[in-house]
Amino acid sequence: MKTVPLGEVAEFIRGVTFKPGDVVDVGTAGSVACMRTKNVQLELDLSDVYAVPLQVVKRDEQYLQIGDVLISSANSWNLLGKCSWVGELPWQSSFGGFVTALRGTSDLVDPRYLYRWFSFGNTQQLLRSFGRKTTNISNLPLDRCRKIEFPLPPIEEQRRIAAVLDAADALRAKRR
């Protein structure tokens, strides 16, 4: 199967930085919802979301888009690389500095396949092995992540793989 360095077909986007005093309630005028590591769960957890002033978002790419993969990029070692699929959100949203978005940059990559590959156990294990530890936090070295060999089957095959995995997860959830 053809592989390419991940950085050739996707980009990592760093989150926004803000001070604790900048945090406001979601829905406050002039603010944007801001996802953080706490929100990165098996599914994106929207039960406890902060908002920050719009001014902290310095670049348009720092707004979340449907199909992004939200990654915990600075966390305890066992949570490093943990990721969530970004679907439709109830608010315009960005993400904080300990979180990174992975976004496909090529029409050769299906976003759902990218998420499935990134969340796969072997990929997660590899990512954790990259972790650079400082005090109690591990950081994901994005330069190294861009070089990971990404399997790139034809787009229709990617969609089929993602659909099969989605169906399997739905079945597991139903059985629970």
Description:
There is one protein chain. The chain is of the alpha+beta class. 26% of the residues lie in helices and 25% in strands. It contains 4 helices and 12 strands. The strands form 4 sheets. Strands 2-9-5-7 form a 4-stranded antiparallel beta sheet, with helices on one face. A 3-stranded mixed beta sheet has the order 4-3-8, with no helix packed on it. Strands 6-11-10 form a 3-stranded antiparallel beta sheet, with no helix packed on it. Strand 10 and strand 11 form a beta hairpin. The longest helix is centred in the C-terminal third of the chain and has 21 residues. It is globular, with a radius of gyration of 16 Å.
Total count of strands: 12
In helices, the fraction of residues equals 25-40%
The secondary-structure element order is EEEEEEEEEHHEEHEH
Largest sheet, in brief, is: 4 strands, antiparallel
Radius of gyration: 16 Å
Number of helices: 4
Structural shape: globular
Brief write-up:
With 176 residues, the protein is an alpha+beta fold. Helices cover 26% and strands 25% of the residues.
Keywords for this structure?
4-stranded antiparallel β-sheet; single chain; alpha+beta; 176 residues; 3-stranded mixed β-sheet
